[in-house]
Amino acid sequence: MDRNPSPPPLSRDGDEEEEAAGGDCIGSTVYSKHWLFGVLSGLIQIVSPENSKSSSDDEEQQMELDEEMENEICRVWDMSMDEDVALFLQEFNAPDIFMGVLAKSKCPRLREICVGILGNMACFQEICVSISSDKNLGQVLLYCLCDSDPPTLLETSRLLLTCLSQTEVAIVWVERIREHPAIYDSICFIMSSSTNVDLLVKVGEVVDKLFDLDEKLILEWIRNGAVQPLDQPQEDSEQQPVFRIVPCVLEAAKQVRSENPEGLDVYMHILQLLTTVDEGIQAIVQCPDTGKDTWNLLFDLVCHEFCQSDDPPIILQEQKTVLASVFSVLSAIYASQAEQEYLKTGKVDLPLIDSLIRVLQNMKHCQKKPENSAESNTEETKKSDLTQDDFHLKILKDISCEFLSNIFQVLTKETVAQGLKEGQLSKQKCSCAFENLLPLYNPVVEDFLKILREVDKTFAGNLEESFPSLKVQT
Predict the structure, then answer these.
(1) Where is this region: Disordered (predicted)?
(2) Cα–Cα nearest to 121, from 168, 73, 155, 89
(3) pTM reported for the whole predicted model
(4) Angstrom distance (rounded) from CA 466 to CA 262
(5) Cα gap 113→151, rounded to integer Å
(6) Which of 295, 322, 296, 319 is nearest to 307 (CA)?
């Protein structure tokens, strides 16, 4: 059976058709108010006090949802995507009914559907503001993040993301989440243990949005996993595990890597947001295992997966945002001066230089604008998209150049000689690097040329011929 069946035909006989024609329709739709009242009344009955006082023998039955009721409430779920229906549900105080179901019902399917309907309703600004201003409903919905049912968790995450995307109410939800430390544990548990890719992606989007909205939350979540509680005996088998945010994010990223590129992009951006604060960088590099796992995953992505030599240059358009995040995190780790085996120069410098220069080379192709604009009439609608693409490409270029300049500053003669021999520092690639690094990183390029002259004076001279400003200054 489909999870969201289409709404049923409104009328089953002539009388119902006449009733609908006489004002039973919801707004401008063909959906029946009378039918919807019936479904909501059925929900009220499910969580009524009389039905709640059941014996332990009935607990198993409470976990199941009557097939007819499931079909009808699924139709409401589908209908709630219509604004007229959503507003009517709001007017009928349906959110209060759903809150009662979520607070009392043990049926996972029913809880999932109720949160899903609220998620659809929250897509409309007026209703989103109303739902968000209800403190009791907010508490119940946050409690749903501690649910053990993946579909319910997915719908709850979707609802939270919708509310966090509304500027009028986003801060309300951020504050609520900050006031409930259990949310951190629940989200970390999902990221570190779930194999449900859809759920991982949606939870990642929630975390990404939260971090983007509130730097204080980033700091709090980093610190949550920094210290093991001292007042709890370690031998206590019931003790809750202490989650550290970075390993949890890495585990989720590994899980979504092959199945959902957009999800990987989300988790790489979370890592990038973590490195915007000093505590975030330290959370990565201070623990050797965490630093190594982070570096190895990201290094593998840029050296063996993204923007490879046999990929068409235009692939950069698809990968520009995730590459910007990955290079940003790698650059932060590289610049942290962490004395770790995985950061030893010579092992990582040349592969990274190769990847960075390839990205800069491909960028030329992506930034070329079509000269023949026969479709200029439609260009107005595309301007915003083109501008957004250019913006993200510029960010990627800035991050790549900064990272490349950091690597150039620590290159040894031995590494440069190896790069010349193996091709990572060919004339074409060095020229591309210089074109992008100059004039902002002029001192870095000059220092690199000094080493290059010591290794291969002829090669260095040929490069200087292509860049007269460098030749004059040296």
Answers:
(1) 1-22
(2) 89
(3) 0.87
(4) 40
(5) 9
(6) 319
d(CA 418, CA 453): 14
φ, ψ dihedrals at 436, nearest 5°: -90, -30
* Residue 5 backbone phi and psi in degrees, to 5: -65, 155
User: Tokens 């501008």 sit at which residue?
Assistant: 387
Q: How many CA atoms lie within 13 A of 421 on its CB side?
A: 7
117/145 Cα distance (integer angstroms): 16
Write the single-letter amino acid at 426. Answer: S
What Rg, from alpha-carbon coordinates, does the chain have? Answer: 28
Let me know: does 44 contact 17? Beta carbons within 8 Å: no
Tokens 């570190």 appear where? 192
Coarse DSSP helix, strand, coil percentages of the chain, rounded to the nearest 5 percent: 75, 0, 25
Q: What is the largest CA-CA distance in the chain?
A: 95
- Rounded CA-CA distance 89/127 in Å is 10
DSSP designation for 32: B
Give pLDDT tens digits along the chain (474 positions): 444 444 444 444 444 554 445 477 887 777 889 999 999 999 988 877 665 555 555 555 567 888 999 999 999 999 999 999 999 999 989 999 999 999 999 899 999 999 999 999 999 999 999 999 999 999 999 999 999 999 999 999 999 999 999 999 999 999 999 999 899 999 999 999 999 999 999 999 999 999 999 999 999 999 997 655 444 444 444 555 668 999 999 999 999 999 999 999 999 999 999 999 999 999 999 888 999 999 999 999 999 999 998 999 999 999 999 999 999 999 999 998 766 777 775 678 999 999 999 999 999 888 665 555 444 455 555 555 557 878 999 999 999 999 999 999 999 999 999 999 999 999 999 999 999 999 999 999 999 999 999 999 999 999 999 998 886 444
